[in-house]
Amino acid sequence: MTTTHHDVLIIGGGAAGLSAATTLARSLRDVLVVDAGEPRNAPAHSAHNLLGREGVNPLELLTAGRAEAESYGARILQDRAVSVRREDGGFAVELGSANTATARRLLLATGLVDELPDVPGLREHWGRRVLHCPYCHGWEVRGRKIGVLATTPMAMHQALLFRQLSDRVTVLLHQLPGFEPEEAAQLEAIGVRTVPGRVVGVESLDAAGSVQGTAPDAGPGTGAAAEAGLGVVLEDGTRVDVDALAVGPRMVARAELYEQLGGTLSEQPMGRFIETGPMGRTPLEGVWAAGNANDLSAMVSVAGGAGTMAAAAINADLAEEDARAAAARAAAV
């Protein structure tokens, strides 16, 4: 068992964590990134709305990001942060490997967990044909048959955005009794169909529309499998065939360490998150958060920018602390 000491400990090696690590390392800070290797977007084939890297494979992007951070001296450790405590004015994090890392400041770039509706077959297609964000995946299903699985009133929002991309949008009411009269009139006016009834399963279809089970496919627009689709099965046995199914998951920040330090998560309609100031500072002294942990809607580009801003704030905070300490030492002589 070993203990390492650092200026900043970053938990999470996604876009936010790696951007922060690069920024801090370029300011000559001793940085350790602890990453468990469970990126939220691992099932997706590509990341979008990312200037200069449009359509890049998410895992390829992380590989490049790790290399960039390491080129400036940041250390990336494949491990899991199990627990955290305050120690000697900073933090001590116990790792899954039984080692310990200590740091003066802590940045939580831990991301979030998508809690999907309890519908058989849904998770198997998550990030491929089961989508949640029209900006992340919409172009790939433009003009196709798109279903919207209604689990909350946010389904109206999804229906409007996906209708911009296709004139073949169907809302499967599932857990909703229906929409408010004004909303229902709007959907009818723009040609969005609504189908009542609880959804009990999602099946994979081949190009001929035959059921293939629930095995993951390549996703829309990715070759031969592009002509396949999904069969959304209702409680009465009827099936609605779509090319892609939009769903609004409940998003919950990975915040076990934050809560161990006494932090409390905030609630919003999409889920639970770590509330921060504009540059990622949390109410807990010495703790910052960036990326999906504090912004549930953040795309890769936004998460990366948030990591950079949090890193700049942490670096300034450390510089101010160092200056105060130097002045105190000088005054004591």
Helix/strand/pairing class, anyone? Answer: alpha/beta
CATH C-level category of the largest domain: Alpha Beta
Order of helices and strands: EHEHEEEEEEHEHEHEEEEEEEHEEEH
Helix residue percentage: 25-40%
> Which sheet architecture does the biggest sheet show?
7 strands, mixed
Helical region count? 7
Radius of gyration computed on alpha carbons: 23 Å
Query: Quick one: CATH superfamily of the largest domain?
Result: FAD/NAD(P)-binding domain
CATH architecture classification of the largest domain: 3-Layer(bba) Sandwich
Query: Would you tell me which CATH topology of the largest domain applies?
Result: FAD/NAD(P)-binding domain
Q: Determine the mean pLDDT.
A: 93
Strand content: 25-35%
How many domains comprise the coordinates? Answer: 2
Tertiary shape: elongated
Distance between the termini: 39 Å
Q: Could you tell me the number of beta strands?
A: 20
Question: What are the segments in which pLDDT stays under 50 over at least 5 consecutive residues?
Answer: 221-226
Catalytic activity: [thioredoxin]-dithiol + NADP(+) = [thioredoxin]-disulfide + NADPH + H(+)
Pfam families: Pyr_redox_2
Domain FAD/NAD(P)-binding: 6-303
Keywords: Flavoprotein, Oxidoreductase
